Amino acid sequence: MLLHDALIVDGSGAPAWRGDVLLDGGRIAALGAALPVAADVPRRDCAGLALAPGFIDAHSHDDAALIATPAMHPKLSQGVTTVVTGNCGISLAPLATPDPPPPLNLLAREQFRHASFAAWRDAVDAARPAVNAVGLVGHTALRLRCMADPGRPATAAEREAMAALLDEAMRDGAAGLSSGTFYAPAAAADGAELLALARVAARHGGVYAVHLRDEMAGVLDAIQEAADCAHAAGLPLVISHHKCAGRAQWGRSLQTLALIERLAERQALGLDVYPYLAGSTVLREDLADGLTPIRLTWSEAHPELAGRWLADIARDWGCREPEAVVRLQPGGACYFQMCEADVDRILTHPLAMIGSDGLPHDRFPHPRLWGAFPRVWAHYGRERGLLTLEQAVHKMTGLTAQRFGLRDRGLLRAGAAADLVLFDPARLADRSDYGDPCVPADGLAAVWVNGALALDGRTPQARAGRVLARTTPAAG
Ligand code: ZN
Ligand code: CU
After folding, report:
1. Which ligand is nearest to the CA of 243?
2. Class of domain 54-277+337-405
3. How many CA atoms, within 13 angstroms, populate the side-chain half-sphere of residue 33?
4. What is the full per-residue pLDDT of the chain (476 aa) written as tens digits?
5. How many CB atoms lie within 10 A of CB 221?
6. Which of 32, 37, 330, 410, CA to CA, is 20 to 30 A from 359?
């Protein structure tokens, strides 16, 4: 298959150029200004379109979606060809329980039936998802598996049990460890517990992705804590969905990025970010501070209220917002808690890669689930001029592949896996928003996964994804 006369944006950040790409047997066979090929090789004319490596979602919660909805339409329709799962300490495996507590209930609760990473991997592969997956193992899942009372630090015996499960998962291809000590019950973990597990991931060449203990007043201490743990364990750190949350923190990305740059001089470190001013997670009373506009994404007690503003619900009920949160539990929400200057600074930082943090099981999800990747180019690049096309693509491909050690993905070069996205750079745009969150993006022409045509225009084609085996991340 010859992709002819495309604007080639190769994922490295290097200047784009016009040329041809030849695909063969799931790989990129050759690139060139005008490749000589036999007349019987099928060709697709790509004039006026950009051809890039398939986007890699550095931060997803797609562990269950890959199995339950293998078409993966929210991601594939953005040009995403690989998702990193198991973020924020929340992974489907290795945990089998009929009733996962928050925040694990961000994932489909009936899907917690994989007692090992290998069982989850096999279930994903059997579902034949449309995109590839890279799996992290969540610290919170390990705790719930190994601790009778997760409301306290793990004992030495419990640490060993968790370490043994993580060791097995790493041997079966997990990409590393994630944690989310922002959330109970993981918040009860002490440094010894986290370090013991990070060391296991390090031994296998994995990464450590961290939802910081605090993204508000204590954000600098929380960055330092995560960095010290990764440094002591000797593995690369990924700071998840970096943000300065809550009005009192606005502007503090100047401080957090300065600290991150200093730390990056001593250790391998990166961060992911999504291109929006609202965050989204489970419903929490402490976040209903009266200053942050909050919009309900799901509620088990009142499913019919998904999509409504918390302030309106509280007014209808004649109560205060924190009380309304209690009555809506369990549930989730969008929190409009960031300022534009911080998101601009973080997103354009050279260490920042793009992760959607999309929540695929929410009834009325944050629009990042369907729009994060096109929005990076459309809003931050084309409309506002904060990123070149090459920079935007690099943050969604080559940089991410390097962080997670995906040696043959994220770049267009001979021999690489043929994960590609073809789009119109003048038209690529997110169409989902907070009021209408499940709308596919515009401007995509085609997506290939492992060499198979996965999306043609708006029409899904082959489902050719699988769980990717871990390879060792490069230093730096
Ligand atoms: Zn998180
Ligand atoms: Cu997350």
Report:
1. 1
2. alpha beta
3. 0
4. 999 999 999 999 999 999 999 999 999 999 999 899 999 999 999 999 999 999 999 999 999 999 999 999 999 999 999 999 999 999 999 999 999 988 998 998 889 999 999 999 999 999 999 999 999 999 999 999 999 999 999 999 999 999 999 999 999 999 999 999 999 999 999 999 999 999 999 999 999 999 999 999 999 999 999 999 999 999 999 999 999 999 999 999 999 999 999 999 999 999 999 999 999 999 999 999 999 999 999 999 999 999 999 999 999 999 999 999 999 999 999 999 999 999 999 999 999 999 999 999 999 999 999 999 999 999 999 999 999 999 999 999 999 999 999 999 999 999 999 999 999 999 999 999 999 999 999 999 999 999 999 999 999 999 999 999 876 544 43
5. 12
6. 410
Pairing of strands 207-211, 237-239: parallel
CA distance 331 to 335: 13
Ligand 2 center to 27 CA (angstroms) = 31
The whole-model pTM stands at 0.97
Ligand 2 is an ion; its neighbours by CB within 5 Å are 87-88, 357
Spell out the domain ranges in the chain: 54-277+337-405, 283-333
Q: Which residues are near ligand 1, the ion (C-beta closer than 5 Å)?
A: 88, 211
Q: For residue 193, how far is its CA from the centre of ligand 1 (angstroms)? A: 19
Ligand 1 center–CA 426 separation, angstroms: 32
C-alpha of residue 179 to centroid of ligand 2, in Å: 10
Write down the architecture of domain 283-333 according to CATH: 2-Layer Sandwich (3.30)
Q: What spacing in Å lies between the alpha carbon of 46 and ligand 1's midpoint?
A: 38
Assess contact for 162 and 200: CB atoms under 8 A: no
DSSP 225-254: HHHHHHHHHT--EEETT----SGGGTTTHH
Ligand closest to CA 179 = 1
Could you tell me what percentage of the chain is helix, strand and coil, using 3-state DSSP and rounding each to the nearest 5?
A: 35, 25, 45
How many angstroms separate the alpha carbon of residue 276 from the centre of ligand 1?
15
